[in-house]
Design goal:
CATH class of the largest domain: Alpha Beta
Shape: globular
Number of strands: 9
Order of helices and strands: EEHEHHEEHEEHHEHEHHHH
Strand content: 15-25%
Number of domains: 2
Oligomer: single chain
Radius of gyration: 19 Å
Strand order of the largest sheet: 1-2-3-4-6-9
CATH architecture of the largest domain: Alpha-Beta Complex
CATH superfamily of the largest domain: 2-enoyl-CoA Hydratase, Chain A, domain 1
Length: about 260
């Protein structure tokens, strides 16, 4: 499939999605959401892909939802339809069996910040800026900002950012737990690939089960979440990779996993 608003490539078990609307600072519109949904579906079906990197390139991750399309929304029904398209993408990212790493340079604001929140891990260049400024134009964050942000950084700081619409830099984003790592802009891609490759080397079924257990457990009461984790733990004992991992540990050698 040919894409107009994103670049897509895959190599060595990694898939890289690059947003490409440079004239709008990678503003997210219906076409971007449609193409992201399509490429995510392709990635999910491709067993050769183990980890995904999502980036906006060197200058900007995503400055938010395209304000021109927001301005065209005139009714409750149109707003719901637009938001449904956006949230379908964010939910697909969160529910994907494959870890997704956001590599963030420049602006990650509004919907752009929510796009990063839907990823599993976030690495940012030292020039990155984050914020949910929707309140300043009479809106709220509707792509998961009021839900994923408090779960990631805690309710107190999330409320401050959502109530004020203030921006924060990469160092502050790292301090409050929004980011896994801050790196020089020139090394952002290399750092993201290094982390992705490290994760891709893990046994695939165990990695898949870990993501499922974390994400599903967050939406359960503790007792149910612990039971779900236990089932995931038990199921992995039927896999060859689990047996190989234990044998390798006992024999003090590097495991050779088959299901990667």
């Amino acid at each position: 499939m040919k894409y107009k608003t994103i670049f897509f490539k895959k190599d060595n078990g990694l898939a890289t999605i690059t947003l490409h609307r440079p004239d709008t600072f990678n503003a997210l519109n219906r076409q971007v959401f449609s193409e992201l949904q399509a490429v995510l579906a392709d990635i999910e079906r491709d067993d050769a892909i183990k980890v995904v990197i999502l980036t906006g390139g060197d200058k900007c991750f995503a400055a938010g939802v395209d304000i021109r399309e927001i301005d065209e929304i005139a009714t409750f029904t149109e707003a719901r339809r637009f938001l449904k398209e956006a949230n379908r993408v964010f939910d697909s990212m969160e529910e994907s069996e494959k870890p997704i790493i956001a590599a963030i340079s420049g602006l990650a604001l509004g919907g752009g910040c929510e796009l990063a929140l839907a990823c599993d891990l976030r690495i940012a260049a030292d020039n990155a800026t984050f914020g949910q400024p929707e309140i300043k134009i009479g809106m709220i964050a509707g792509g998961g900002g009021t839900q994923r942000l408090p779960r990631i950084i805690g309710i107190t700081k999330a409320k401050e950012l959502l109530y004020t619409g203030d921006f924060i830099d990469a160092s502050e984003a790292y301090r409050i737990g929004l980011l896994n790592k801050v790196v020089p802009a020139a090394s952002l891609v290399d750092e993201a690939r290094a982390m992705a490759m490290k994760i891709a080397q893990q046994p695939h079924l165990a990695l898949q089960a870990t993501k499922l257990a974390i994400n599903a457990g967050l939406n359960m009461d503790k007792r149910s979440a612990m039971a779900y984790e236990a089932r995931c733990f038990e199921i992995l004992f039927s896999t060859e990779d689990q047996k190989e991992g234990v044998r390798a540990y006992m024999e003090k050698r590097t495991p050779v996993f088959k299901n990667r």
